[in-house]
Amino acid sequence: MSKYQSKENKKKSLFYNSNEITAFAKKFDDLIANNKLNEAEEYIKLKLKENKSLDILYYLLGDVFLKKQDYKLSRKYFSKSLNVNNKYYPNILGIALSYFNNDNYEDAIKYFQKFIKFDPRNIQSINLLGNSYYIKKDFNEAINNYKKSLNINNNQPFINFSLASIYTFIHEYNKSVTIYKEIYETKSFMDFDKNNIIKFYIDYGKTLEKLDNIKLAKKIYREAINKYEKNTELYNSYIALLLNIEDFNLALNLLEKCIRINPENYQTLSNFGIFYFKTQNYKKAQEYILRAIEKNPENFLLLSNLSSCQIELGLLDQAYENAEKSIQYNNSYPMAYNNMSRILYEKDKIKESLKYAKKAYEINPLDGMYCYNIANCELSLGNKKESRKYYKKALELNPKFGDAFLMLAYGGKVDSETVDKTINLIKKEKLPDKVIGSFCFGLYKAKENAKEFKEAFNFLIKANEFYFRTTSLASLNEEKYFHDYRKLIEIKKNLYSKKNLSLLKGTNQTNNQSIFITGLPRSGTTLIEQMISNHPKVFGAGELKFIAKIKNKFGLVEEDYIKKDNLNSSKELLKILNKKNIELMGREYIKKINHHISETNLFITDKMPSNYMNLGLINLILPSSKIIHIKKDMMDICFSLFSVKFQKGHEFTYNLKYIIEMYKNYENIMNHWKKVLPNKIYIIEYKNLIENTEKEIRKILDFCELEFNENCLNYESNERIVLTASSSQVREKINKNSIGRWKNYEKDLNSFLIENNVIL
Predict the structure, then answer these.
(1) Residue 470 dihedral angles phi and psi, to the nearest 5°
(2) How many whole angstroms separate alpha carbon 407 and alpha carbon 299?
(3) CATH of the domain at 465
């Protein structure tokens, strides 16, 4: 029996004035001490036959059943003891413990509170009451009870540890780290059992990470690993930190050590997946995460990570399914809802996407990422004011959120105080290249808006330098890349020669009403589509990936033939480009777009800019389609590409040399299409569209065999979803802002081109 119980028993022995009670208590204590619970039970029941009015016997029998984990019977006998003697309040504690140990915290709380009224300084019950509230996530009450306990006795390291854990959980990191630091410096945590020592190290490390004290966090993890060299949980916690700060070399080193300790540990496999995800090897990431899921198939976190990975791989249906599963196993994990939002966004279901983004934010309103995604949805829906509100909120929650600052800057003016804070931040903080790049893009725009062009240009150069470092192009041989791209153009020109197109012409009579809008990114393709799709007979489908998918399906990927000579490449590709396949490819495309066609929307636009590389194929498989090509001044478009951060792809835009090379190749292939496809492509100059909008729109509609409609001139009222970098611009009245914008930077731009040996 406990000291408390023994004390009460002595009182009872005096109360009943019986030596027999004392002898009984000694024998009972011996049985309990030797864990002979069944014998203790029989012994008490025997005594009860002799004296059924002795409350202490019922109490002790309740205690035996409590130790035997038969909580229903323990409560029965504690209650009987109370019926005999309602002043013997340890029974109330016994009932509270039986509820607590049976995971019934609601009733446990009631009885702990009753007991504490009798004994307000009983630390055990106060702590357990605090634990009950902690488990129920009533953190305010848990904190109050832990503090009450510590006021009675401040030498309770484990209660301090519990208190710190709560503060960490509710994101009050400064409070928690103060407690962790004291426990650590006094080494009082070393009195914990092994599991809790390890937990202390992990929790302290994670809290330090939240406060950006990475140096000390790493020290804590290293110390822990030195003590417990085979503990994979410690390794994985340290690895998680390293992955967050993108120290990939050390992370990989520790991952390899960790997997040697236990090759089947799901957390290690999961971290391998995260490693490959962060290093953009999504196929490898998927492989490891799937292995981890085999070990833990109902783990919501793994399923959510798998979903994230599949989003990047373009496996949207699979990603959706796994995000749904993640929510099924844990409906309060915000990242799973966030993934649902991203998937629906990619599928152009922006209103549905917004609902899931808001759900993620509702669950965790302290994560700026969820605010950011809401803002993106609102922007795509044309709700500029709402979007700015959430971009601001995202930046408030996370001052190191570069993309949030960037979007604020591109969406309107940013106050000078925020600009100055941002400049100081990137000077003082060690941030990932992409984050610095995003901040610099935002600072470029903020300075441009303030007409401080020299400073703006300097930030633009920095932005692109930092982003280019993160691209696959940074590690490639520049000249080889240029050579290969030029060869790709030559392969296309040979394949779609005037002779070959003439031979294959008329092999496909597939009728369709697609309008292809092509050009380089930032050339005005979004504006053209916005205008045309405001026509009642036209559905604006945006950037469809169908042509690329069809090419992949039929093996018509010219890039695969770069290593061969041009003649052989053309011969092999022509075998694929036969009459049968041409017709099948046309049907495949129409099948993919059919769900957009209705009695009212007879025409459909496809504005994938990169389709300018495939105009020969488009003409063959969809001969009745309309092709519109929008052209922009070389300097206007090159500077525009250089001054924008794209959400994904277009890696070449972060280096002026690559942009110029891309433009030259673009001009090369477009000149070829003009020669071999006369009268099949309608070419419009962006400048003419801006200066003579109605005249040019009439010409375009006439080319598409559509009657003129006034709605096409009121394109800014078009409520269709826009997902490109031009999403906010196309909802504004037409203006000349992008024409000649580079001239504000002409002197600095020329100097930069000369310094970097870039030839226009």
Answers:
(1) -90, -5
(2) 35
(3) 1.25.40.10
Dihedral pair phi/psi, residue 565, rounded to 5°: -75, 160
Q: Pick left, alpha or beta for residue 399 (phi over 0 → left; psi -120 to 50 → alpha; otherwise beta).
A: alpha
Domain boundary among 88, 115, 133: 88
pLDDT, tens digit, 9 for 90 and up, residues 490-512:
999 999 999 999 988 765 555 67
Query: Which pLDDT belongs to residue 730?
Result: 46
Residue 407 lies in a domain: yes
Would you tell me the crossing angle of helices 579-593 and 546-554 to the nearest 10 degrees? 140
- Token pair listed for 213: 């004290």
**527 and 653 co-located in one domain:** yes
Contact in structure between 547 and 614 (CB atoms under 8 Å):
yes
Q: What is the pLDDT of residues 205-251, one digit of tens each?
A: 999 999 989 999 999 999 999 999 999 999 999 999 999 988 999 99
Q: In which region does residue 492 sit, left (phi positive, over 0), alpha (psi from -120 to 50) or beta (all else)? A: alpha
Q: Tens digit of pLDDT for each residue in 288-331?
A: 999 999 999 999 999 999 999 999 998 999 999 999 999 999 99
Contact present, 654 and 643 (Cβ < 8 Å): no
Euclidean distance between CA atoms 7 and 675, whole angstroms? 105
Number of H helices, E strands in the chain: 39, 5
| Cα dihedral 268/274/280/286 (nearest 10) | 70
**CA-to-CA distance for 54 and 85, rounded, in angstroms?**
9
Residue 468 shares a structural domain with residue 482: no
Q: What is the pTM of this model?
A: 0.74
What pLDDT score does 610 carry? 86
Distance CA 281, CA 368 (A): 26
Going by C-alpha positions, the residue among 593, 665, 657 that lies closest to residue 625 is 593
Q: What string of DSSP letters covers 364-404?
A: -TT-HHHHHHHHHHHHHTT-HHHHHHHHHHHHHH-TT-HHH
Which residues sit opposite 684 in a β-bridge?
630
Q: How confident is the model at residue 721 (pLDDT cuts 50, 70, 90)?
A: very low
Q: Write out pLDDT tens, residues 612-631.
A: 999 999 999 999 999 999 99
- Domain extent, residue 16, equals 1-88
The SS3 call for residue 680 is: coil
Reference 254, options 273, 280, 236; nearest CA is 236
How far is CA 87 from each of CA 90, 259, 610, rounded to the nearest angstrom?
9, 59, 85
Does residue 323 form part of some domain? no
Residue 416, CB-side half-sphere exposure with 13 Å CA sphere:
3
